[in-house]
Amino acid sequence: MNTKLATILLLASATGLAACSKKAPEVLPPPPEAGPVTTGPTQPTQPTGAQVGTQAHFAGAVGSSTTIYFDTDRFNIDTQDAAALQAQAQYFARYPQITFTIEGHADERGTREYNLALGEKRANSAKNYLVSLGVDPGRISVVSFGKERPVALASNESAWAQNRRAASVIIN
Amino acid sequence: MIKKFAFLITAALFAAPFAEPASAQDLGAPLGEDQPVESVAVEGDSDGPLRGTVTDESAWSDIGIAIPAFATDRDRATPANEAGTGALGREVARVITANLRNNGLFKPVGPDSLPQPEFPQITAPAFSTWSGRNAEMLVHGYVRARDDGRLVVGCYLYDVALQNELVREGWVVAPADWRRAAHKCSDLIFSRLTGESPFFDSRIAYIAETGPKDRRVKRLAIMDSDGANHRFLTLGSATALTPRYSPDYSKILYLSYVDGNPRIYVYDIGTGKQTLVTENRNPTIAPRWSPDGKHILYAMAVAGNTDIYRVPATGGASVKLTDNPGIDVGGSYSPDGTKIVFESDRSGSQQCYVMDADGRNQKRISFFGGRCATPEWSPRGDQIAFTRIAGDFNIAVMNTGGGGMRVLTRGWQDEAPTWAPNGRIIQFFRTERNTGRSGIWQVDLTGQNERRLPTPVDASDPAWGPIRP
Questions:
Q1: Which helix (H) or strand (E) holds B328?
Q2: What's the mean pLDDT when you consider all of chain B?
Q3: pLDDT in tens, B185-210
Q4: Closest Cα of chain A to B266: distance in Å?
Q5: CA B269, B275, B278: angle at the middle one, nearest 5?
Q6: Residues in contact with B463: Cβ distance below 8 Å, sequence separation at least 6, in sequence order
Q7: Which residues have CB under 8 Å from B362's CB, separation 6+?
Q8: Which are the contacts of B192, defined by CB distance < 8 A and separation ≥ 6?
Q9: How far apart are CA B141 and CA B42, in angstroms?
Q10: A108, A124, A151: residue with CB nearest B303
Q11: Starting at the edge strand that comes first in sequence, how are the strands of the sheet with B371-377 ordered?
């Protein structure tokens, strides 16, 4: 499993921008209200207004790349996830004083306890990838919410795709 | 060293003379200790019950049972009913009638449409009164207030055609526990007529749910098997999940996010204090008791990978039972404590496996298509209930080798079965599509008698405890 994951990570890093999304269009998360879309690693910009060390500043810098999404029952980092995590890693490299939490989530179409374990795997996948990009593991906390905290409330494929996620959160 | 330290911390927390602030623990006021129910000999005319047992469900489901109000020797005030022991006797008969009717058992007729027997008739029924009322069976009983304030409740079952007493029993209860006497009487009737083990005098721990789908408030709650005596045990500031009553009802295992992370706590019902199941920085989920209450199974994620562990209920070193890169979670002991059924996705999807209690001989048992999740071993030992995922989520049972699979429910998302103490009824929770609202349902092993349990708010994660001690 570890070697497989490592292979996926390597592939993901190597292919970077060039790879197409494996995910069907309808499972893509909705575009954010502001900020760049996830076409690739986003250069941290100089956000206006929000203070360094807040979630607003982080989101202002990386846009929708604060969150990565997973296929059903999967926890691997695909090319799209890798691009988002690279944007996060650049941000966290620029602000080394910031600590943050990765929240792992699952959709409602899994049993409760299994989903808690699956959320752990997803959050740890994101953490391991960030660490591989040079982020100090001591700065990263991980918590799974299983299916307890959905962001999309409908019971359909689109909503479930938005809920299968690992979200990086700066808690002040 | 760390384990020993953990045990010391656990012990210290139990012994702590001061309560943690409620805001830090999310705990409500403690319930205090349970009062025992003692059996007493009750007077009667016949020497013993008839022998022989009715086991064919189609036969006994049609038995008409008359349950008139229980009589009293002398109408006396009691804290159990401000109108006195006479009015309480009517309430007892109503509870018994509702128990049988709500579970699809027999054809009960309750006290509100029946004549009321006098106290001397309890041991000498006026059979001619009952034979004309389509009642094959007759329940009589009485309530008597003792001078010490406790109540004596007598319960008698008669065969109307034979004009014969089948069984009788009596109990002494504190006034606050009068419903337990009604449940004991229900169990006596049920067991005598079906040959099955009792289940009414039991309690259910569950999760009470309120609020919108993305900000659901989930509180630990308990109730009697019929929904009465409902109590919230946590306040709702922290998400609570997956409770399990200890076999002696003194503790509840459950998951709480009270410190921000999913962790299993051992909640002591009498003192209202709780401790971590294991002192560890890793998240712990899916708590289960061993049948003797001496061990606790839990799953722990280390660096993202979840395996199953066992720890003594009194604290101490944990033993790792599974060691696999897949997700292993949710063990449930066989009633003799020698085997554990659990779920694992090591084959690529959730399936059910059985292992010895020490973790050896792990073998997959589910091979029928779809997925097998949340397995729970029947208290009778012969069946395993589980969540079958094949498109929708349904409650199913199989034998302990994985054969004889039967799907019992047809909801969109029916999840997390829990067995009645007698292994004849299964409760589970059903979630509605889109709204995310949930309720506790139950179904018997025929799949025929399905009903929703009344709860004050939405409900999930039922955990049915054993017959009360």
A1: strand B328-333
A2: 91
A3: 999 999 999 999 999 999 999 999 99
A4: 18
A5: 135
A6: B204, B205, B206, B242, B243, B244, B245, B418
A7: B322, B353, B354, B355
A8: B49, B157, B166, B167
A9: 10
A10: A124
A11: B371-377, B383-390, B392-399, B406-407
Please list the helix, strand and coil fractions of chain A in percent, rounded to the nearest 5, in that order.
Answer: 45, 10, 40
A113: nearest CB among B214, B326, B330: B330
Tokens of A163: 């809920």
pLDDT above 90 covers what percent of chain A?
70
A141 Cβ partners below 8 Å, 6+ apart?
Answer: A99, A100, A101, A102
C-alpha dihedral (B188, B194, B198, B203), degrees to nearest 10: -110
DSSP-derived secondary structure for B123-152: SS--HHHHHTTT-SEEEEEEEEE-TTS-EE
Distance CA B455, CA B228 (A): 9
Q: Which of residues 378-397 of B touch A (CB under 8 A)?
A: 387, 389, 393
- Tokens (6 digits) for B168: 């009788």
Chain B: nearest CA to A9, how far in angstroms? Answer: 16
Q: Which residues, numbered 311 to 350 in chain B, qualify as contacts with chain A under a Cβ-Cβ cut-off of 8 Å?
A: 325-327, 329-330, 343, 345, 349-350
* CB-CB under 8 Å, B213 with A111: no
C-alpha atoms less than 13 angstroms from C-alpha of A132 in its C-beta half-sphere: 18
Token digits of residue A5: 């994951």
Closest C-alpha to B255, from B291, B214, B210, B220: B220
**Structural contact between residues B383 and B400, judged by C-beta atoms closer than 8 angstroms:** yes
pLDDT tens per residue across span A24-61: 334 444 444 444 444 444 455 555 688 999 999 999 99
Phi, psi for A55 (deg, rounded to 5): -60, -35
pLDDT for residue B44 = 64
Instruction: Name every residue whose Cβ is closer than 8 Å to that of residue B411 and which is 6 or more positions away in sequence.
Output: B392, B393, B394, B430, B441
Rounded CA-CA distance A68/A29 in Å is 9
| Angle made by CA atoms B305, B283, A109, in degrees to the nearest 5 | 70
The Cα–Cα gap between B258 and B277 comes to 14
Residue bearing tokens 């560890």: B280
pTM beyond 0.80, yes or no: yes
Contact B372, B386 (CB under 8 A): yes
Mean pLDDT of B13-35: 58
Write a three-state SS string for A1-62.
CHHHHHHHHHHHHHHHHHCCCCCCHHHCCCCCCCCCCCCCCCCCCCCCCCCCCCHHHHHHHH
Yes or no: say if A160 and A72 are a contact pair by the CB < 8 Å rule. yes
ipTM of model: 0.89
DSSP B119: G
The pLDDT of residue A134 is above 80: yes
CB contact under 8 A, A149 and B214: yes
What is the Cα–Cα distance from A114 to B140, expressed in whole angstroms? 49
How far is the C-alpha of A144 from the C-alpha of B282, rounded, in Å? 11
B24 Cα distance to chain centroid: 29
